[in-house]
Amino acid sequence: MILRILFIALPLYLISAPPVYTRPGIVTMQGGVWEGSDHLLNLKGPLNVVVEILKPKNVEIPLSVETIENKIITEFKKMDLVNGNDFSSPTPGIPFFNVLIVAYPVEKGYVALVDARLMEVVDPYRVKLDPRTYFQAVTWEKKSVLVAPSDEFVQTVDKTVDDLVKAFLERVEYFQDLRRKLDQKDQVERLN
Prior knowledge:
27% helix; single chain; two-stranded antiparallel ribbon; five-stranded mixed sheet; globular; disordered N terminus; alpha+beta
């Protein structure tokens, strides 16, 4: 009997709750515990898209940076978040949506981490920067760990990237809707 692994998404659980909120976003104390959330209100496009693939040296990985970037750009164009990659802006291509794929071959397949994140200019208020110097930080992030057989690796990575991009775009849409509601409320208050 041959057991074939089609796709395994490894659910990850925290062993213990850390005393701080460990993900990007807004953080506040609620009920004696630090709670947080992403915050994409007023996110302005266009966003550049940067895909990186990290792999062992001298190992072929059947993934294409260009193919993955083009898929993401196609989805971002549907929401007017990108007009192609333009790294000539005064800031060094910021904001940008970054997908990092760390792939490692194992017997008859691959293990991979797919990390999707939004990088933006932030001001940490700890140093005065030169006008042409920027502090960039992750302001949104989702990750997925996967194991797939060699013949299904590309499909599995593609689906994972699609899922992470979808999660990001759903959050963007949520905050765009919130912005519209806030603007409508502001208009009503001005009339009163």
